[in-house]
Amino acid sequence: QVQRDQYSADPKFVRLATNAIPNSVELKKQWCLPSAAVIQPLAGMKQPVPVVNFGAAGIIRCRQCRTYVNPFVQFVDGGRRWKCNVCGAFNEVPVEYFCTTDGNGIRRDINERPELNCGSVEYLAPEEYMVRPPMPPTYVFAFDVSYPAIASGLLASAIDAVKSCLDSLPGAERTQVGILTYDSNVHFYNMRADQSSPQMLVIPDATHPYLPQPEDLLVNLQECRHQIDAALDVISKAFGKTQDVEGCLSGAIQATYLVMQHVGGKMVCFQSSVPSSGEGKLRPKEDLASYNTEREYKLRKAEDPFFKRFGGECNRIQMCIDIFCCPPKFTDVASLSVFSSTTGGQFYFYPAFFARKDGMKLKAEVTRNLTRETGWEAVMRVRMGKGLKCTNFHGHFMIRSNDLMALPTVDPDKSMHVDIGYEDQMVPHQTTYLQCALLYTTSLGERRIRVHTTAIPVVSDIGQLFKACDSCAIGTVLAKLAAEKIRSTTIKETVHILNKKVIDILKEYRQLYSTHLHPHNKLILPETMKMLPLLMLCMQKSALLKSPNEVTTDERSNTIFQILSMPFDNVMKFFYPRMYPLHDLNQIVVEKEGSVKLPQTMPLTLNNIKDSGIYLLDNGMACYIWIGRGISPQWLVDVFGLQNPSPQDLMNLQVGSALENPTSQKVIAAVNSVRKDNMYYQHCYVVRQGDPAEAMILPWLVEDKFQTSYSYTNYLGYIHKGVLTR
Q1: How far is CA 256 from CA 109, 222, 266, 309, in A?
Q2: Angle at CA 43, nearest 5°, toward 40 and 45?
Q3: Strand stretches in 591-699, DSSP E
Q4: 139, 558, 591, 624: least CB-packed within 10 angstroms?
Q5: What is the rounded CA–CA span in Å between residue 61 and residue 59?
Q6: Alpha helices for 434-551 (secondary structure H)
Q7: Which of 373, 377, 367 is nearest to 344 (CA)?
Q8: Global pTM?
Q9: What confidence tens digit (pLDDT) does each residue in 506-552 have?
């Protein structure tokens, strides 16, 4: 048992794949599952992280390994020195920070010192932690104004969404805004407060952008609010009759780079047409003949090195790129999303975008993106205890100087994971530590360091590793590794690697216990690993790994992007959705303060679904209401006000506000409660049993056999056979 383990950071911030570390390289080879940590440094919590200002003492850190003072350090010499828990070095305590200790070496002021009794704290950073003064939050909105963007309603929807968020952008009076539009040209907008109206400045060749004037393309939001609104109004009317089908996104990004290079910030792009000229032009990649050949992985990779190279340049100047990709047909998500992944940005995908169908989702996701807590100009480092190190870093950022993650922006919806490896053959202590430090600027211009520290037991016996295993966290790490793997190999090979991991670890477990304790024909699963085979099967049935005739290349590339930065809870929901029965309204309790208590979730199999039932299925990206054929048509009238709707009427339904009756209010409250605080807005599809749209729900019943995939029972049989094979 780790001493003072209650002082470790909350698992929402740092979640370990296994809550223990093998004490040697030899034992790690035997334990064939990843040693890793999933980190979500700004995860939203009910209780705010305490803020510490060290004042004149300066930030207290180990002089040798630069670890920040934390609850696991030891004070010695009556409180005059402290021993670092990570490297073991002794450090002098500054006079301003000194306090006497009791007989057990505990400082007498420990209860007033959050940094000594909380696993997560935030330090106010002094000037030496700044390369330059904190920059104001800066947003450049880039609108595709080509014909596809007008025809689908994207331009009108995007302008409406941005307008509705301007008053809620973080940063108060410091916030700066710029606007540009693009088709085969790039258009800047001069929105200076002293002008009577905004002025459009046209760059005729989008493939060679330049600044039409050196200043005034970024303006203060509060001072120039009237001009910004006027520019958005002009844009919504000016391009109504365009026939230009080209939307040169890379030209718009290069132009924004020139505007932002002195300040950094966030570029928010709304893209519809497929860029077909200049650097970063795209070509269709949907090539079924490539599957199961050595060419297959290229479908999921950016072929043109421009995307990564220029994304790296944007990262260097602290410019993040968020893309709302709304193509009418195939685009190349694998390439376009590299702009977002290299700059710590977010990529949103709306295939065959149509405003009436997708406008509500677009507006909700733009609102969440622009109004959530955002950290700017961030870097993050993870330190490990003696004998250990971080070997690989996975997520959306660039790595500088071996182990420093560079994130132009960071927010509560981003996670990353690190692999833990060995510097020496043995780990010398019974407890080791992981400390993650995120240095960033708040939207109000404070430089802060958020520090999460976690204690990890070091064990010498594989049996203890099985007890410490967290199968959901291991599933999350393996999903993120699989998302990276299919960019360099076939889906078939990736599935084989995942299955082999499960088989190998269960073989180890079987060998731990003599076979006379267990019947030969029974699969033995440790209690802590009950979920692992199920999660492996769910991965293989998801858009990440299912067969090419069931999912487009763009959809798969989007899934890869999302999984690599998705928070733990979202990964779990995406692979094993939550299904709630809604037919018993007494089980849906709406509390006075507005929170909703939902019924118990159900296993995802048709065996549990009754014709007389109604069910809500939520996978974190979309949700579905399934209505059994035994339900009276009056239910649809009560809940949605629909009299004998066609399947198409139900597909077009936007589920959002309730009617004035208890049934409608409870059902809509249930839908809105699964949407609450989610990074994606789940469009809610209403499906009746027997309607063609039922085909959308069946693949999410992951415990059943579907097309060529295993049922859960059959998959366990397949794993068991593998375990018994010598």
Answers
A1: 51, 21, 10, 16
A2: 145
A3: 596-597, 614-618, 622-627, 683-688
A4: 591
A5: 6
A6: 462-468, 471-485, 491-512, 532-541
A7: 377
A8: 0.95
A9: 999 988 876 556 666 778 888 899 999 999 999 999 999 998 878 88
